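Hallway conversation turned thread

IA: we were arguing at lunch whether anyone had actually written out Guanylate kinase end to end. Turns out nobody had. So, for the record, here is the sequence (189 residues) and right after it the structure tokens. Reply here if something looks off.
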Amino acid sequence: MARVFVITGPSGVGKGTLIRRLRAAVPELRLSVSATTRAPRAGEQDGRDYWFLDEETFHRKVEDGEFVEHAEYAGRRYGTLRSELERHLAAGAPVVLEIEVQGAQQIRGTMPEAVQVFVAPPSFDVLRERLAGRGTDDPEVIERRLDVARGELRQQEQFDHLLVNDDLDATTERLVGIVREQLATATAG
């Protein structure tokens, strides 16, 4: 039985880095590439990092029921394409989703068997420093992301697992442990 792992948390908390490390440690895990209306950042590629869609195309796909979840975050839209998720599940591969908290809540309703992991920063100040340190967003976008993060952090107790990303190696180890345990349980059951 394939498993679905949802990794969520505020922007800038390190979800992408953790997932890259997780996939290196658990190579059978497939990444469901999300769609977004935001512009690609330097070095990002369509279909590898995100499916970059214009607003009209994204809206049409929402209307046509092509997303298993979608959300607006800091003025941009994000979502998981049903075709992307089903492609991996049909092959029997476990799948990891890197999604926003709103989307994770939708997945909880539609796929209650999905294992949900919330990644939190060690403090709000550290989150602010990480967002500013990326150098990818102007100060107004950073403030919008921080406003959203305040609400997201209040919801962290709703998730199956909570990881505070205070030490990248230790947090990666805990995440790998959660995934391996769940995969072993799925295989044994």
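OS: looked through it. The first strand starts at residue 4 and ends at 8.
IA: good, adding that to the notes. The beta strands are 4-8, 30-32, 35-36, 51-52, 67-73, 76-81, 95-98, 115-120, 161-164.
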